[in-house]
């Protein structure tokens, strides 16, 4: 149904559009060293903030310096009945945090790999639980001296992705290194677990952009497949891939490439081919391009692509809301010529004092029709996206807080928020959940989102990735715990009976 807006909403949206159009043409925060914290912190992080339908539960610091904690990406894994958050950092290694009791997060290990970026993916291969960990730019002398550098014999000028074995989360082990001279800003594992696509995110200094593809079927012996060339966009910030998302079947890849979004046919992941391209002048820096498919009331399906704009590459801001979310219809034949539905922004329109304000890492939960997203100085946000199934709009449509099928239903912001990523691993039937933010300034934060107003959702629960042999052993040990004492008692009684017979 067409969306109507009040005069007030229209004027606010127009103001937001004006602010978002008056952006710098340079983006430097992602070149090599990763993002830089722009918000200020005291020796102690702020203990209270403001929010809607959300509360803050816990904070965990990665060190005791009282300085910026440099949190970056975050992923989750469930192993042998316990839940863990894997929190990346710019230079403090991968933090492995037990979140089985969300209100009491406990760090169980740090994978000592002092590299800048720390993008993470998790997959399984032959009874092993593996994670990837990225080094954007070179690992440097400190990275070479850290454990991953020593284990893998890295030199200070190496750049690329480390593969880590986290089958025992408290004892992460280095497995291998995938060298990429231009660095690994992000990388994405194909759903098969057999291939890794690398995004270097370099700016206009690169005139021959490419996605590097590795065969990781043998994680300890990865093999480079090719540098898959992607189009060069002249007069832009850059054309390299910043991030890549696959569909669940692994037949499509959506490449967020700074000045463009590419749609690839990855039916053969070793030999992808381009089938679509989006160049949108309203997007300053294409940061993430994620698909979602909805089933409509008439039984048909609709597939949309949500593209995040990381305005100016997370450089210091003079305005909010910064870059927003741009939605395209890519249903059926539209995949080759996507149709824009509109753009969505958080309902915050204000000048900024230099702290970054723009959209960043999001995660969509298709069955729950929900989204979580980090917005740097504007903290963490929760969206109800159920309306995307039928939303109508146009390239000029601008929504602020609600519109084009998306509605903000929760948020929480601290005075020192500088949140890079915000995701969850569990959602209850009423839509409530514990969410986990990884923050450049604050470190690891746990939030509670109370519930979705007015609707229920299918629960989300993580799958246990513990190797089958571990699960089988646990299953066998359970009855053994009862059988062994009973057997021992029977043996003792039998011996006593024999002693009595002998004595008689």
Whole-angstrom Rg: 25 Å
Query: Which ranges are low-confidence, i.e. pLDDT below 50, for 5 or more consecutive residues?
Result: 1-15, 19-29, 471-487, 498-504
Report the helical percentage. 10-25%
Protein structure class: mainly beta
Mean pLDDT: 90
What characteristic shape results from the CA principal axes? globular
Number of DSSP E strands: 33
* Alpha plus pi helix count: 4
Distance between the termini: 96 Å
Largest sheet: 6 strands, antiparallel
Approximately what portion of the residues adopt beta-strand conformation? Answer: 35-45%
Describe it for me?
The chain has 504 residues and is mostly beta strands. The protein is 12% helix and 38% strand. The chain has 4 helices and 33 strands. It has helices at residues 7-21, 140-145, 147-151, 468-503; strands at 50-52, 54-60, 71-79, 82-89, 94-98, 106-111, 117-124, 129-135, 160-165, 173-179, 186-189, 195-199, 210-215, 223-229, 243-246, 252-256, 261-265, 273-278, 286-295, 301-309, 319-320, 325-329, 339-345, 350-351, 362-365, 370-374, 380-384, 398-400, 402-403, 406-413, 419-423, 433-439, 443-449. The strands form 8 sheets. Strands 1, 25, 26, 27, 29 and 30 form a 6-stranded antiparallel β-sheet that branches. Strands 19-20-22-23-28 form a 5-stranded mixed β-sheet. The longest helix is centred in the last third of the chain and has 36 residues, at 468-503. The radius of gyration is 25 Å and the shape is globular. The model is unreliable at 1-15, 19-29, 471-487 and 498-504 (pLDDT under 50).
């Amino acid at each position: 149904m067409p969306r109507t807006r009040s005069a007030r909403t229209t004027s606010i949206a127009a103001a937001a559009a004006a602010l978002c159009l008056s952006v710098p043409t340079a983006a430097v925060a992602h070149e090599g060293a990763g993002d830089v914290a722009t918000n200020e912190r005291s020796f102690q992080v702020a203990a209270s903030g403001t929010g809607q339908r959300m509360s803050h539960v816990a904070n965990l610091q990665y060190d005791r310096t009282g300085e910026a904690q440099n949190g970056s990406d975050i992923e989750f894994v469930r192993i042998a009945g316990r839940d863990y958050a894997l929190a990346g950092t710019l230079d403090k290694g991968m933090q492995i945090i037990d979140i089985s009791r969300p209100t009491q997060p406990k760090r169980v290990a740090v994978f000592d790999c002092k590299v800048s970026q720390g993008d993470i993916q998790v997959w399984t291969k032959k009874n092993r639980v593996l994670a990837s960990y990225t080094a954007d730019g070179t690992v440097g002398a400190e990275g070479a001296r850290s454990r991953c550098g020593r284990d893998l014999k890295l030199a200070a000028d190496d750049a690329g992705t480390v593969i880590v074995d986290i089958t025992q989360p408290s004892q992460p082990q280095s497995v291998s290194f995938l060298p990429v001279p231009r660095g690994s800003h992000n990388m994405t594992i194909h759903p098969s677990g057999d291939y890794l696509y690398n995004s270097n995110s370099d700016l206009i200094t690169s005139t021959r952009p490419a996605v590097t593809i590795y065969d990781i079927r043998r994680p300890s012996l990865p093999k480079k497949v090719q540098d898959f060339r992607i189009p060069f966009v002249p007069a832009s910030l850059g054309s390299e891939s910043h991030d890549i998302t696959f569909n669940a079947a692994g037949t499509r890849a959506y490449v967020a490439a700074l000045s463009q979004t590419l749609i690839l046919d990855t039916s053969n992941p070793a030999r992808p081919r381009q089938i679509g391209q989006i160049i949108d002048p309203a997007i300053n820096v294409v940061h993430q391009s994620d698909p979602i498919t909805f089933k409509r009331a008439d039984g048909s399906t609709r597939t949309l692509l949500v593209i995040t704009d990381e305005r100016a590459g997370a450089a210091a801001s003079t305005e909010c809301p910064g870059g927003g979310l741009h939605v395209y219809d890519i249903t059926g034949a539209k995949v080759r010529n996507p149709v824009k539905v509109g753009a969505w922004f958080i309902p915050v329109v204000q000048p900024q004092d230099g702290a970054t304000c723009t959209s960043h890492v999001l995660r969509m939960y298709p069955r729950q029709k929900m989204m979580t997203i980090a917005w740097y100085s504007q903290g963490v946000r929760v969206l109800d996206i159920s309306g995307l199934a039928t939303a109508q709009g146009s390239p000029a449509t601008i929504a602020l807080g609600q519109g084009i099928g998306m509605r903000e239903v929760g948020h929480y912001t601290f005075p020192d928020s500088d949140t890079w990523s915000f995701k969850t691993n569990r959602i209850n039937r009423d839509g409530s959940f514990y969410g986990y933010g990884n923050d450049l300034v604050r470190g690891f934060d746990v939030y509670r989102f109370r519930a979705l107003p007015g609707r229920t959702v299918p629960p989300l629960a993580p799958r246990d990735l513990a190797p089958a042999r571990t699960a089988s052993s646990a299953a066998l040990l359970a009855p053994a715990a009862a059988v062994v004492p009973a057997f021992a008692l029977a043996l003792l009684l039998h011996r006593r009976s024999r002693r009595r017979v002998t004595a008689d």
